[in-house]
Amino acid sequence: MPQALFSQRMDAGESHEPTLFDEQLDDVPPGRYGEGSAEAVQHQGPPDGFTIKGNAQSMLFHTPESPYYGRTRPEVWFRTEADAERAGFTKYVRRPRRSPGAGK
Predict the structure, then answer these.
(1) 3-state secondary structure of 91
(2) Could you say which residues of the chain have pLDDT below 50?
(3) What DSSP string runs through 8-62?
């Protein structure tokens, strides 16, 4: 049975130069915080596999579950919480608010 035209590659049989899209996920160069970190580039998303946002000024990191994840502008990306902690960052944890009359 003949193969459908739309499923045939246009470059079948041709060799091609590697492109950015051929890059392996492990090819992300380590960021300033070592292995498991990647530099954040303004107006670009994270490298594949990097979902944790780090704030270098506060040394806090935010996971996607953090209530501030969406509004945090990353200065560094991390693959895992362990990578962020190894770099000296602390996980953001919401602290309960004190009531105005507490402690009196």
Answers:
(1) strand
(2) 22-25
(3) S-TTTT------GGG--GGGPPPBTTBTTEEE--TT--PPTT--EEEETTTTEEE
